[in-house]
Amino acid sequence: MNNLLKFLLVLALFSQSCKSSYDKIRTSGDAPLVLKAANQYYAKKNYLKAQTLYELIISSFKGQKESEDIYFNFAYCHYYLSEFELSSHLFKNFSNTFVNSPKREEALFMSNYAIYKTSPNYKLDQSGTEKAIEGFQSFVNEFPESSRVKDCNEKIDELRSKLETKAFEQGKLYYNVKSYQACLTTLDNLMVDFPETKNHREIRFLKAKANYEWAVNSIFEKQKERFLSTVELTNQFLKKYPSGKFVQDIKEIRKQALSKSNNPLYDRYQNASSGN
User: Fold this and answer.
1) pTM
2) Which has the closest alpha carbon to 56: 41, 44, 38, 72?
3) Phi and psi dihedrals of 252, rounded to 5?
4) Which of 37, 109, 209, 247 has its CA 20 to 30 A from that of 223?
């Protein structure tokens, strides 16, 4: 039994001697010592260890002068560890807590930039993209003279382009699956939301095609008016783009729509309906 106790004691002493300086500091309970080590790790870009140590003492320094830098660095640690949503939340909290801090502008920018980093491929849900656009615009409104305004505007343009691409591809998908009315609605909304789009020509072409197919597949009493609206769309296209890409296709769509709209059965049906 005595030998077992001696062995356990030696093992404990050996384990203690092998304990890293980081672990000793982490478990020391000495807040100033932990802060000093956290700052050193942060300076050396060891953000995981710095984040762990800052988290241990962040409440210990609440209300003290060190608190501002601790919280700011803590938020950056999460950012550099690619924990973007959490870092955005922390930067936002920093800006709300330290309202007079000279770092508040940077914190607000980083709060939005971290969300920007979460913006996915256009094929996926774009909630983060929309949130980042809103955040960058809010920043520009609050700090119109900031050196970061140019970057914000560039990011807004980039993110809006992604939303535009998503809407355009959605419109094409609706056309391909023969949901022509949904295609038209999507493309109409796209042109309202993104009047600066570089895809005007193709959008107008796709609208004319979709409207024609919608007319073809409509119930009889709706066909004539939809063929005529197709003709109107083709006229608008040709007025804006008298030559170039899609013009021959548009002329063919116009020809077919005009021909079908002149079907005498439409007028007979209309007269019969009026007579009833």
Assistant:
1) 0.82
2) 38
3) -70, -40
4) 247
